[in-house]
Amino acid sequence: MSEHQPTWDEPRMPAPNLIRTAQDEEQALWAIKSNRKPVIILSDFDNTLCDTSTFDPKTNDHSPLLDAELVKLATKKPLVVATGRRANHTWLPTMWTSGLVHPVIPIIAENGGVLNVLHQDGLVEHALLAPTDQINDLKVWATDIAVQHQTELGKKVAIKQGLSALVMRVQNEAGESPRQDQRTLLQFLGSAGLPEAFVAIHSGNSLTLQPKGIDKARAFHEVLDGLGIERSEIQVIGVGDSANDEAIFEESDVSVGVHFDVAHLVDIAGLRGVETTKLLLGFPFQTRAVNFDEFASYSATIGATIAKERPRS
Length: 313
Hints:
Elements: H1 22-35, E1 39-43, E2 53-56, E3 61-64, H2 68-74, E4 79-81, H3 94-97, E5 107-109, E6 114-118, E7 124-128, H4 135-153, E8 156-161, E9 166-171, H5 179-192, E10 198-202, E11 207-211, H6 216-227, E12 235-240, H7 246-251, E13 254-257, E14 268-269, H8 274-282, H9 298-309
Parallel strand pairs: 1-4, 1-12, 12-13, 13-14
Antiparallel strand pairs: 2-3, 5-6, 6-7, 8-9, 9-11, 10-11
């Protein structure tokens, strides 16, 4: 184990066009419309597209409860979802079945480490974008850290293993996980020294330990390539609530933050969670005129294409 110190999001000067009122948000969105390029929305999921969930103490899982109005608005906009959730989380396919995400558009999971692809036969393929050879060793290391510091934290440290990443969360018996507790856990991880190949990223109400060089924006380009869409042809509105969305903000033509933690990173600081996302989805800017039927073969080929370009572990 090396003495690699995970980085916490450094303070930045506020963006010169930081917007803080609903009226100013409307003006900014009209400016997007006047650009005339079609829009694709690249959005985080938890605390952005969804901020309510049910907790099952038996499985220690949070199952999201989608807002029906938001889902209805999403069906009318090209929406790409990029989440820090584990790719093998049993709830993720609900994004397709609910109508939130169109079936031919992959779901970006594990902060860009995996694309979940839905095949026409209903099977879900996990197309890996990150190495996985050290993930089991990483879980052993993380478990040791959790055991050492669980008493100091006074709460349970839950660990869930994905395909390319680990999710760690300090939580109480009700499954609640305040952001400050995750910052404290991040400090413990830094003191222990992460394995050299990994970074620890604050994902709002949890921490994600993932391979270096992996982020949501890189995975987004994989999605665009598969759909045959040139990045220069579109405007991207990026939405998120935490440090693991910084790549989304940097990729976007207009970035929107829905939590005070990221107000210094974005152009529009809505700070109203799902309500701000509804505003974006309901706004009459020009969307990409995509006939999704044209991309029916996409879900059958993208996994094989990625496998050729990035060897699986």
